[in-house]
Predict the structure.
Amino acid sequence: MNIIVFDTETTSLDKPFCYNVGYVIYDTEQGTVLTSKEYVVEQIWHNLPLFSTAYYANKRKFYVKEMRARRIKLEKFGYICQSMIRDIKNYQVVSAYAYNSSFDEKVFSFNCDWFKCNNPFDNIPIFDIRGFVHNSLIGKEYKRFCDIHGYYTENGNYSTTAETVYRFITQNTDFVENHTALDDALIETDILLLCIRCGL
């Protein structure tokens, strides 16, 4: 089946204006990426006071470089949604996945309402990759890995961020999540595929 894994970067948690969207459409039977795209949202990009409130606003130079190299497109949010809708239809995508999907669902709901555009996920179910991680990867080996390297939350629980999980599955403790939408969607795809191989 064909699936979409997507990620967003936003200005805040309460009013999550989206400035970066990335997604991967993947054929789980053939094991191939069918397409991957990344966008910077024009309306937020040009609103410098709003963009500057983002936690990762310091990545602005990175986005400038990537847009100049035409690896990332600058488009209005409505166009981005239409592009996703077309790709979901053309590739016959049956389900969507995101890490902490409830937040990304909120991002699309909020921004689609704000910009008065169609939500790409109105007609397909969204599943939480982090939930699959808890069901299939968090065992003795994972906990021992966290104990050895001190990967805990502020509350003292085992960390299950995408960065920590990716460090575990690659055994690369130097890995640092980029916190840009397409890069994050790609590592989250790898995490999801391992969960699928483990039987979710």
